[in-house]
Write a structure and sequence with these properties.
mainly alpha; two-stranded antiparallel sheet
């Protein structure tokens, strides 16, 4: 086990601070790309790549960071990369204030919603909210005091949620990492970038010609597209085709929305997956779309799930599948969990017993924090627990998709309340619960799971195991990074928002989804949803389909259908990446057939180069746009 050095911790803290400044500026002011909206965050990869290059120069002077030190730094950055972007601050500030700023006589939010919102959810001073959205006058100081209580409010809930996620990862890590030996494709690139060879300052992968072939294949079109923005005479290369315009006539409207995107990072990551899994990821997307086509042919009513590009009956199938698959994962872990419990009670292994005891206590402590938060807010503790249990099922599935399937972009096409309301009706939940739990809380933390923390926590545990890092040091430093990132990015976001004004910003939350929480809650209150037998039926059908898939996978070994493909299903991520996943699957299949395992291994650096080339070029244009002041400059398909 290699312990952490003081200089690695200091460099990690510096990188976290840089992330906390870079990400808000990129997301709000520049708007070229979302910096932290995947499980392989762009902001982390860009800054870490620059660190690796700078460290290569320092190694030539015999003063550079060693492999294990770089990995400690990467672990600190990885857990905070999404929090300083879409995972926390980019959602909590606009969503909690929009219900007040956007309130009008016409929408009646003041009369219907405001009386039920706790005063400490947002600043009590309406002038502070107005200036946040419209920009603060030059001679007026930022009202920091108004934001202390709201920050503590939402940070407390977030910390309770993160504590549960950490604890779940710690309890499941041995089963996933040691027993099942999941591949964890998302850690391949950082591990390769940190590798050392005696007498060499440059990592081996950066001396591999095949890596650079892949790098330039992905970097070249993005370089050209970036130049086109600054010099229009340079031709652009279209990497995205919206095929909705060809699907305007029934029944083919059932295939909409759909796109053919070339996303090089998705192709590169798909190459690292088993072909049965990569096949399933795109097959089930088409499978669900065929259901929609059949529904269109028979004239079925197929509304979309609110705020998602997925038809509701498909969303319920996927939700049922997720619940059954989660039960299956826990069932597969039962022996390991039993050993953990025995170690905890019988003390057969003192170190491990203490470690898992703390993880189990952490799980209970996180749930306790969530319940106390709900109690203080005068919300239903039972409903809060139900919502969070469903949410933790979803993020556990997302973590499995990242660990086994290399899926770096995930979004379930439902919120927890969408699963609860069909059984109870919305009126039974109570107005105050609807306004606060289904309103800001779900929309801040649960509507979009692409920035959930749990997959990144499991990745740093894998890195710790793969390179012999001290586990307690990795956990301690990552927790420090989270706390530092939350505080720093929150302050930086407020500075940018007050200086520029929220209505002038480019962020997705500010522009597109900021009013969806109050609109949704207002609708549930005024037009209550009733008991929905149809939705329950589709949930059960999805669960039964998943159970069948699990049985078939264990009995019919040649069947190339993986349950993870079903839970990924039809969602916004698959709309974007189904085609590059299919391309990656096809390339790997051809390479294995023509070149065998030897050819597969030889070409692997090239596919890692595809990932690095895309990320590097997007990062380059983000930095150039920051310098030149260009906004909304997109060089690659939108994720």
């Amino acid at each position: 086990m290699t312990n952490v050095s003081i200089r690695a911790a200091v460099v990690g803290i510096i990188c976290v601070v840089i992330l906390s400044i870079f990400s808000p500026y990129s997301d709000l002011i520049v708007g070229t790309v979302w910096s932290g909206a995947t499980y392989l965050p762009l902001n982390v990869v860009i800054i870490f790549m620059l660190l690796v290059l700078f460290n290569t120069l320092l190694r030539k002077l015999q003063i550079g960071l060693q492999e294990h030190e770089l990995l400690y730094v990467y672990c600190m950055m990885l857990v905070v990369g999404c929090i300083v972007s879409l995972g926390f601050v980019h959602s909590v500030i606009p969503i909690t204030t929009a219900v007040f700023y956007r309130a009008t006589k016409e929408n009646m939010w003041r009369e219907v919603l405001h009386p039920h919102i706790p005063k400490w959810f947002a600043p009590a001073n309406m002038e502070a909210i107005k200036y946040l959205w419209e920009g603060i006058p030059k001679n007026v100081p930022i009202p920091w005091k108004e934001w202390v209580v709201p920050f503590i409010t939402w940070a407390t809930l977030a910390i309770g949620m993160y504590t549960v996620m950490y604890s779940l990862c710690l309890l499941l890590q041995r089963q996933w990492i040691t027993n099942e030996r999941l591949t964890f494709p998302l850690v391949y690139l950082p591990l390769e970038l940190c590798k050392e060879e005696k007498g060499k300052a440059t990592p081996p992968i950066l001396r591999n010609n095949i890596f650079w072939y892949g790098f330039f294949i992905s970097a070249t079109p993005l370089l050209i597209n970036g130049l086109h923005r600054y010099f229009p005479f340079v031709p652009s290369i279209n990497l995205s085709v919206n095929i909705d315009e060809f699907l305007k006539e029934p029944p083919w409207t059932g295939l909409s929305p759909a796109a053919l995107n070339i996303i090089f990072s998705a192709i590169g990551l798909t190459y690292l997956l088993p072909t049965s899994l990569s096949f399933s990821l795109w097959f089930f997307f088409i499978f669900f779309r065929i259901q929609a086509v059949i529904g269109t042919m028979i004239g079925a009513h197929m509304p979309f799930m609110f705020t998602y590009p997925t038809r509701a009956f498909i969303s319920y199938q996927i939700a049922g599948g997720m619940i059954v698959f989660c039960i299956f994962l826990l069932w597969c872990s039962r022996k390991e969990l039993k050993k953990i419990f025995q170690h905890r009670t019988k003390d057969n292994n003192r170190d491990e017993a203490t470690f898992y005891k703390r993880a189990f206590i952490g799980l209970l402590a996180g749930l306790f924090i969530i319940c106390v938060w709900a109690y203080v807010a005068r919300l239903s503790i039972l409903l809060t627990l139900c919502i969070f249990i469903i949410f933790f099922i979803v993020v556990l599935i997302a973590t499995r998709l990242a660990a086994e399937g290399g899926v770096y972009f995930f979004q379930a096409s439902f919120r927890p309340s969408d699963i609860i309301i069909p059984f109870t009706g919305s009126a039974a939940l109570g107005v105050r619960n609807i306004v606060n739990l289904i309103g800001p809380m779900e929309h801040i933390f649960m509507r979009d799971q692409r920035a959930a923390l749990m997959p990144n926590v499991m990745d740093i545990l894998k890195i710790s195991d793969a390179r012999g890092l001290k586990r307690t040091a990795v956990i301690g430093l990552s927790i420090l990074a989270i706390l530092l990132g939350m505080v720093t990015s929150y302050a930086v976001y407020l500075v940018f928002m007050y200086r520029a004004g929220g209505i002038n910003l480019t962020g997705y939350t500010w522009c597109h989804v900021v009013t969806r929480a109050p609109e949704h809650t207002f609708s549930l209150i005024n037009i209550p949803q009733k008991f929905n037998l149809g939705a329950i039926g589709w949930l059960l059908f999805g669960g039964a389909s998943m159970a069948t898939l699990i049985i078939l996978r264990r009995t019919v070994l040649w069947l190339p259908l993986h349950p993870l493909g079903y839970v990924m299903g039809d969602s916004w991520p698959t709309v974007q990446i189904w085609f590059p996943i299919m391309v990656g699957w096809l390339l790997k299949t051809l390479i294995l057939r023509l070149g065998g395992i030897k050819g597969y291994r030889k070409l692997m650096p090239g596919f890692l180069g595809l990932i690095m080339g895309e990320y590097s070029m997007i990062g380059l244009w983000v930095l150039i746009d920051m310098i030149t002041g260009v906004k909304g400059h997109t060089v690659a398909p939108f994720l």
